[in-house]
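seq:
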Amino acid sequence: MKDALLATLIEEYSAVEAFASVLTLETKALTALSPVELLPSVIEKKTALIGELAQLEARRDELLAGMGFPGGWAGMELAASTDERLAAQWSLLQKAAERARRANTNNGELIRVRMDYNQRALEALQVVVPKKAGFYGPDGRIPARAAAV
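struct:
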């Protein structure tokens, strides 16, 4: 059963590393002038990897339960304390997950900044400009009352 748990941890580590790579692509997309073309494929990849990670975590918890350990972080810590190989792979997984968490937090901040910028740009565009004589209207013509002045 320990071998199955070790194999699951290795798969989980690979999936977290793949997720971190997608987060790097997301960072590049979010810092591009026009991210709209790049983001849909990134979101699709992220969604697939999140599903895969959830399945691997559930499998890990099942294996832990089969070994008499509780699920989650606490159970994995106990299992890792009984086997050097599990401990080493668990440590790698935790470090990879922390890197991915930091990248995801960074991307969240980039999204917030971009949304704030877009909101301010919209507000600037919505400022009402007073009509003055000689200004062209939206149709490209000088309004009749301005032309008569």
